[in-house]
Amino acid sequence: MPAPRTRRAALLALPLLALTLGACGYGSESVENEGKAEIAAGAKKIDGLDSVRIGYFPNLTHATALVGNREGLFQKELGGTEAKYSQFNAGPSEIEALNAGSIDIGWIGPSPAINGYTKSAGKNLRIIGGSASGGVKLVVNPKKIKSLDDVKGKKIATPQLGNTQDVAFLNWAAERGWNVDAQSGKGDVSVVRTDNKITPDAYKSGSIDGAWVPEPTASKLVAEGGKVLLDEADLWPDKKFVITNIIVKQSFLKEHPKAVEAVLRGAVKTNAWIEKNPGKAKAAANAQLKADSGKALPAEVLDPAWKSIRTTDDPLAATLEAEADHAVKAGLLEKPDLRGIYDLRPLNKVLRAAGESPVDDAGLGVK
């Protein structure tokens, strides 16, 4: 039996996706897996369910979901209930699917989780577990920027107005005493909102001087000659901050608690397997990426990115509240009431059964 742990984290590199804090439409559609998970002969259904519908992004920030799917670890815990997977390209579309009842449980970033909770007046989703931390860096052109002070007056890309990295960069700039208009991005430093897919090209063309971006975009910029000037993890206590959580539709949690616990057992066991088998886990995640998106990450991007993120059972609740506060200070979000956004009771039940330490909701859990 492994020793009890609090916030166990396996070092992994996972690319972070743009997840919007500001108001945004729900336009993107999910892509459903064509393949079906194997169900053991004679396995019994959980809670009488034919299936549990699980959503995630085909991205390494969602490594727990990728590896758990690839290795059949969720299906094993669900028994005769089929694990059905859908992939999403943006947080808002996954929230829309959860609201519509198209998925039951999902892996998602902090910003859309906050948005989804507040927009429904706290009535639709709960965060029930953690998944990943870290993996965001400030990468700059070393010919133009040699120190943090040199960032002032330069053009720095972030993925999207109000997204997780945009808020982090605006907060960092404000703490340095620089004035930046959050909406326009103009000020002591120019914030250039740029899709991660084209940020490397923007860097090569010289239209930006650097970028505050997630992996694997950061590693792609380094491959183009960029230099990591700052790792966002260094700005957080214990170098941990949430980038991916597990959410569930509240009605599903109420009606099918055993199914929720089964998925959480699968997540905990997947994270433990990742920690024990990092090389195999990296290969499994990349193989599932190829299956989901049609394209695997090349080794020169995958390998360095894999080292900068941690998978974790702990949702790092205190950092979620801090991220929300940063968005409020930037003027991108009205002060949200996050009380009740977490229900960690099922996860802590699973952790205790595994001989591990429970995790904390920072006072934001259901009463």
UniProtKB/TrEMBL annotation:
Keywords: Cell inner membrane, Cell membrane, Membrane, Signal, Transport. CDD domains: PBP2_NrtA_CpmA_like (cd13553). Pfam families: NMT1_2. InterPro entries: ABC_SsuA_sub-bd, NrtA/CpmA_ABC-bd_dom. Its main location: membrane. It is found in: Cell inner membrane; Periplasm. Gene3D superfamilies: Periplasmic binding protein-like II. Residues 1-25 form the signal peptide. Belongs to the bacterial solute-binding protein SsuA/TauA family. This is Aliphatic sulfonate ABC transporter substrate-binding protein. It comes from Streptomyces huasconensis.
